[in-house]
Structure formats: structure tokens, C-alpha cells
């Protein structure tokens, strides 16, 4: 049995939620359809002609990519252009392309967490926030006999998370009243008779993302025909999601030694460095891809060194003036996120016959001579 394309993407989106993408980013289904059986999925950093030809050779049905195959608005679909021929081959061979870009950068265990982990950064947190998780308070009134069952159902569905603590609730006993009218099928009480029941007011916190699942679990566990509950927004926010990471090294290193370690950790032939090689670095900021416009965030966080790609001449001088070192490992290091995601998807699809693989094409356009 092979997985459906829509189901594969639904699983992928739980790891890389689309709502985490920066506004206006080109993500989602860009070519083809997900309404089909998928025998083979391939993960790729870019969707170049060489990657498409690889997909054709390997009978790939779905490519999940980090960089958009359609980034700028199309004016034509002429197959006389190289991009046009890429789209033609994808469509003719029924290969769908699904893209996750900044949401893959931002997501937990995404691009930036993978890059930080390879350097063993400690006490990491977001460098540049882009999304503060909205929270809501859920209040439900439960008969004492079913209080524990509903509480456990809410916790299992993801309600009540505060930091590293789950099942966080507050519970107040009281008396609930209701009068079943004609046609009702009450769990407790009789038609046309006012009932008084010992109930618990159960309060907990839910996120905007898991609200629907939590409410569904609550309704399934609750014994009443009509469940009395309230949901209201909170000024308090949940987790902070964003681009880049800031963290610390276990011990201070010279910029020269740390640069050598970055080169080894990211499997690079070479990298560019801005700053005195003998200076000491310990506080590290990083942002996968092109992060020059976030230099100010690294400076604000008092980073000793900022790792990001596509550093230009003037940004390098700005960094020197600010007293922060720079390491440019290239944009292509983002490919390091693909193998961990391949493993996660393969595990999630283990009960199907769908195969998840990685592109073997090196799409880095730069060579060192």
C-alpha cells in the first residue's frame, strides 16, 4: 500500500508548519497534484534541471524541496526557456513539487536547529522572532464522576503545556444546573426537571494550532449530550518561533579554530571569514541561507561571531565596525537538514510501501579553485 500525496504532505506539515513561514514566502504545492498515490518521495534543496532528470530516472512521484521552483511570478509558460523546460518535464512525468522554505528554517529541528546542533551550541534560542504562538484559555464544566477522564483526554490531545510541563490545569468544584427539555437525552436528570450536579470547572491552556484537536478530544471524553465550555484568547503568548539561533560554545575558542570546526562540521571545502583570527569567540549567532539583513539582530544579542551565507562586501565592513566576526559557509549548507527529515518521514511512512530518498545532485553553484 502506497501513501497518498496529500497524506504525506499532511505529515510533513506537522514537522514544518506552513503558518511559520515569513509572510509572502513561496511555499506549498507549486507543480502537479497531491491527489495521487505516491510510490517515491525525494527530498532536495533545489529543483534544477539536473534534479528533475534525476527524479525522472528514479521514477519519483513527489519532490519536497527547500527552495521554490517557482519563485518569481510567471509571465509565460514557454518551454523555449530553461525554466519552462523544467516545468514541462515535471508535468509530463507527473512529478509534483511541494516547497517549504522559511517555515523549514523556523521550525523546531529545522535548518537552523540542525546547523546549531552540528556545532554543539548550548542554550540556543531564536535570533530573530517572526511568530509568537497565540494561546487560548479553555474552560469546561465536567461532572465529578468524569473529571479525571476529561482531564487526561485534554492532556493527551496537547492541552496544558507550559514550558516543559504538560497536563497543566486548574480545577474548582461547584454546582452546575440544567433542565432537560422535551427531546433531550440527558446523561443525568429527567425531562422538565431542574437538575443540580456536582461539577468541576476545569481550566487549561491551548494553542491556536491544537485548539480543534483538543476540543474534539474533550467532547469525545465528556459524558454530556451538550457540553458547556468556553474558549477565549489570552494576552499571554506561547512559544517564540523565528529565524536563526543564538547560543554559546561549551568553551571559548579563537576565531581561527572555530572557523576550522565550522568547516568540518558542515563538510565544506572552504569558507569565508571576517575578523581577527586570534580573537576569542564564545557567543554564536547563526542563520542558514542568506542572513545579511539580520546582522543587526546578531549585534543586538552581543554575539561574538555570526554564521550566515551570501555575505557581501559592505556587510563585512559593517560587521568589522560593530566588532562582530563573520563566517560565511555558503547558502548551500541548508542541505544538511534534508537527511534528518528523510529519516523522520521514512519512519512516519514505515507502514506503507512509499520510499523516501534524498537527491544526490550537488546544486551548489560555487566551486573553489
Overview of the molecule:
With 369 residues, this protein is of the alpha/beta class. 28% of the residues lie in helices and 32% in strands. The protein contains eleven helices and 15 strands. Strands 8-9-7-10-12-13-14-11 form an eight-stranded mixed β-sheet. Helix 2 (49-57) runs parallel beside helix 3 (82-92) and helix 6 (147-156) packs antiparallel against helix 7 (211-221). It is globular. The protein starts with a strand and ends in an 11-residue tail after the last strand. The mean pLDDT is 95.
In short:
By secondary structure, the protein is of the alpha/beta class.
Topology:
Elements: E1 3-4, H1 5-15, E2 28-31, E3 37-38, E4 40-44, H2 49-57, E5 62-65, H3 82-92, E6 96-99, H4 102-106, H5 111-118, E7 122-143, H6 147-156, E8 169-178, E9 195-207, H7 211-221, E10 229-254, H8 255-265, E11 272-274, E12 280-290, H9 295-300, E13 305-309, H10 313-322, E14 325-328, H11 338-348, E15 355-358
Parallel strand pairs: 4-5, 4-15, 5-6, 12-13, 13-14
Antiparallel strand pairs: 1-3, 2-6, 7-9, 7-10, 8-9, 10-12, 11-14
Helix pairs in contact: 2-3, 6-7
